[in-house]
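Folded chain entry —
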Amino acid sequence: MPKNIKVTQREQSLEHVTQSVADLLANEEPLDYKSSSLNVGAPALKKVPQIEVPENDGRPAWNSKLQYILAQVGFSVGLGNVWRFPYLCQKNGGGAYLVPYFILLLIIGIPLFFMELAVGQKIRRGSIGVWNYVCPNLGGIGVSSLMVCGFVGLYYNVIIGWSIFYFFQSFQYPLPWSECPIRKNGTLAIVEPECDKSSATTYFWYRQTLNTTSTIAESGGLNVKMVLSLLVAWIIVCLAVIKGIASSGKVMYFSSLFPYVVLFCFLVRGLMLKGSVDGIAHMFTPKLEKMLEPKVWREAATQVFFALGLGFGGVIAFSSYNKIDNNCHFDAVLVSFINFFTSILATLVVFAVLGFKANLMNEKCVTENAEKIMGYLNSNILSHDLIPPHVNFSQLTTSDYAEVYGVIKTVKEGGFAQLGLEPCLLEDELNKAVQGTGLAFIAFTEAMTHFPASPFWSVMFFFMLINLGLGSMIGTMTGITTPVLDAYKVQKELLTVCCCIVAFLCGLLFVQRSGNYFVTMFDDYSAGLPLTIVVILENVSVTWIYGTKRFMQDLEDMLGFRPSMIYFYLWKYVSPLCLIVLITATVIEMGISPPGYNAWVQELAQERFQSYPPWALAMCFTLIIVAMLPLPIVFIARHFNLLSDGSNKLSVSYRKSMMKDISNLEEQDETRFILRPKPGELLSVPRRPYVTPAGNKSIDPNSLSPNSCYGAGYQNPPPSAQTPR
């Protein structure tokens, strides 16, 4: 057999093997060495065009950039922007609170949000898949994130159920919480004592809506009205996410934009109300001394942290449906600032309305105390000489009452306390800080009863709350379903329905008569500390284990430009340090603050703080432990090779980028084959340089642990490739 026939057979055999490997990795055509420009003496052959693999490889994709931005905005902008941020702003120094919040948004919020968007977009996987590929030993990050999403989704949808109940109750005039109910005792009609001691809106919330018990230990049975409301809430969420982003993306067009329409309407209407300017002025009057308190910075960091939805997995899941070259840096900055300005807008609305309510309450206080003074004057307990001549009790203003109150207090210094007069200061009413359900279902609803056409505004307000909650729930559910769909071949619709059914059944815990106390428990313990630990491990795994320099190079390859070098230092040093301080402060706060809840005492018609019983305390710490348990379990299992690292499940687009790196190595190997060194001389493999943010120093990618980060994509070349023979 001629020699040239053997050579031909060997070349055909090698070509077949090369093509098989390429097909397995990226479905690309093999590199044709005979057509290479470095093949000296061979005739130039026509290059076969490579087959381009679609970037999404069947993975769902957003219909438009606007749809994606609205989804991220809908997820990050939630109920906390309306009822948590205004409370923190008022509590922590008014306008002065905005300074630490904005600083922490820049040094923690935007960088970490950008990081989550980037890893999701690059690897095109949900939270479990992403952290399995970034650092297999820390793959429990994704599982913990999923569990926190589950805990939060359980009670968050209960709040949507409450909003649905109030929404349907708003279609009547007068509003059912505008007046106290009348109890008939034979021929005698009296006001309900519990309502008379508190207020109409407070009574409607605690008694007619929740029908709450006095302690968490008293179950009281299921509240049928709340069970039905919760069922409706889960049906809405299920329909919104049943088709994945194909259905939720369309829902976001309405659920993300409608709240802004309502907020602007409320702002315009609120500014027309008497006293609204007093509320806004009180809100933004800075108390600069508050900025020196560490607690203010801790609460600002926590609010930044949760406002952007960091660590929940929804951010990563949404970004995984993007194109690989999408400008996620622009998205991170845009969504973060939209979130911030939404919080400012909501604060203006809330305090415009609360300023109106404070004026009403102050006028009511003046009227009631003026009647007391008139009684004391008629019974000669007080002398008419004490009343200034220009004061007219039939039209008593707040300033006139303040003058009369001051005179009486000065003259009757010894027996003033027995008179039972109140100062009726507007500042005192404005300082009554309310948050959460107390703001939405008590304070705000009470203010709306004094609006003209109050049912219309009530319908708009609670429909806005439903949409705000729905946007966040869609992101939460996506953070749960996307990792599962990535890991297992499960029908999307079946998985979504099963998740919603299980969540509804578990959610029955929150719709018993004591369910409000369990909502408080889950809100305090299921997400705070576990989620902070999840995010700091995300940060460490990317910047310290995978490598910040390598990550910056990946971003340049993906975006087409190198992000500012400030991110290098924020990711590597500033953010981890801030998160460690936040975790430490959170643990200290949990240690010094007695664990408990505010219970509604029916006999007193007011809230009283109560400590958790032992079983409830054990439940609180179980929530924290269960949420963090996947972290050590996965670490131990991967360390002892008891669990696969998931490297065989890389997305096609990610494998394609890996194949390009392998092709580059093959071209370099070809050069070395032609320009062969002297016998016995070893030639090292040229490695791809990873430059620093400054662009003046390279780093060896193998200087980082190949067994812990991107093991499948960035492993060292095999020994046969390092030493040509």
Remarks:
- The longest strand covers residues 596-601.
- Confidence is low (pLDDT under 50) at residues 1-56, 651-725.
- The CA atoms of residues 371 and 474 lie 54 Å apart.
- The radius of gyration is 32 Å.
